[in-house]
Design goal:
globular
């Protein structure tokens, strides 16, 4: 069982939720994830993980938070990623 690590930048309280675009963060190039949930009691983190799973086309149970529980910059592991996941991720990072 292998995993792929994905850096994300969460924007909580967004009026227009969505996944796409890149942010040069402390963990390298990060995928921008805007969620409507506020950063209270982990709600924004959970919403971000759900949004990333949906955008990448993988089950939510395949994603786990590696670091960044209390930060906008997070590192997420995708367990057993499909072979084309890097291409899907590249498309999202390009903002498409």
């Amino acid at each position: 069982m292998s995993d792929l690590r994905v850096a994300i930048r969460v924007r909580p309280g967004a009026s227009r939720p969505g996944v796409g675009g890149a942010y040069d963060g402390p963990r390298g190039r990060a995928l921008i994830v805007a969620v409507a949930a506020r950063a209270v009691d982990g709600a924004a983190t959970e919403a971000a993980l759900t949004a990333v799973a949906r955008a990448l086309g993988v089950p939510r149970r395949s994603l786990s938070l590696v670091t960044g529980a209390a930060s906008r910059d997070k590192l997420v592991a995708v367990t057993d990623p499909p072979a084309d996941l890097p291409a899907r991720l590249a498309t999202l990072l390009a903002g498409s």
